[in-house]
Amino acid sequence: MKKLLVTGSTGLVGSRFVELIKNNFSVVTIGRNNADIKINLTNKEEVSKTIQSSDTNAVINFAAFTNVDEAEKEKNDRDGEIYTINALLPTWLAEACKSSGKILYHISTDYVFNGKKEDSPYTEEDIPNPVDSWYAITKAEGEMGIIQIKGKFSIIRISYPYSGVYRKKLDIARAVVEKLNNKEPYWGVEDQKIKPTSVDDITKALAFLLQREATGIYHEPVSKLH
């Protein structure tokens, strides 16, 4: 049975992944809260030591700061926690995986594209060019950091994940339902095309890649307007 080291296992996507995958993979979670191995993911030394000393086959990085509006409060702060988690941590993981012979599977986002491509949709060959959003910028730099290390990796870009079982955070589907139940308007946008993705489907896709030890960049067709 393949062994996986997983960050971000308490989040919307990571928690469901761990729940669904445990019968097919041996999973060890790392992080500050409710993890098998408790470490500070903003500390490079702790991260590197944990990865290199682990006997797992692969590392899956779900850890990310995903609140787009809140991220603007730390805009351009490359010493801040958001930049550390979204941009530096993926690079540290890539370095440690390369030196210990592991594959890194990194969960990224369609926000690495600015949506101005005329002949949509975006493909995996398109070069990231994020909008002027700190969340988007940090996630794009996280991808670049991984690529520059030149180890074995997969970057998996997802869009608007939703889950019927996660209660700690409202996804887009439950946010709409909650507003409607409260007889409140849900304010949408007119200048974006989005494609919400089931967390269960994301897990199936990840399992497929893990079983084949696939490397490269993967995403669904993205046609995003801003």
Residue share in helix: 25-40%
Report the uncertain regions: none
Summarize model confidence as the mean pLDDT.
90
Strand content: 15-25%
Looking at this structure, what is the CATH superfamily? Answer: NAD(P)-binding Rossmann-like Domain
Please compute the radius of gyration using only Cα atoms.
Answer: 17 Å
Please give the structural blueprint.
Elements (H helix, E strand, L loop, with lengths): L2 E5 L4 H10 L4 E6 L5 E2 L5 H10 L4 E4 L6 H4 L9 H20 L2 E7 L24 H16 L3 E6 L2 E2 L9 H10 L15 E2 H13 L4 E4 L7
Parallel strand pairs: 1-2, 1-4, 2-3, 4-5, 5-6, 6-9, 7-8
Q: How would you characterize the overall build of this protein?
A:
- The protein is α/β, with parallel strands linked by helices.
- The protein has one domain (3-219): Rossmann fold (3-Layer(aba) Sandwich), CATH 3.40.50.720.
- Helix content is 37%, strand content 17%.
- The chain contains seven helices and nine strands, in the order βαββαβααβαββαβαβ.
- The protein has helices spanning 12-21, 44-53, 68-71, 81-100, 134-149, 172-181, 199-211; strands spanning 3-7, 26-31, 37-38, 58-61, 103-109, 153-158, 161-162, 197-198, 216-219.
- The chain has a seven-stranded parallel beta sheet with strand order 3-2-1-4-5-6-9, sandwiched between helices.
- Helix 2 (44-53) runs parallel beside helix 4 (81-100).
- The chain is globular and about 50 Å long.
- The protein starts with a strand and ends in a 7-residue tail after the last strand.
- The model has no long low-confidence stretch (mean pLDDT 90).
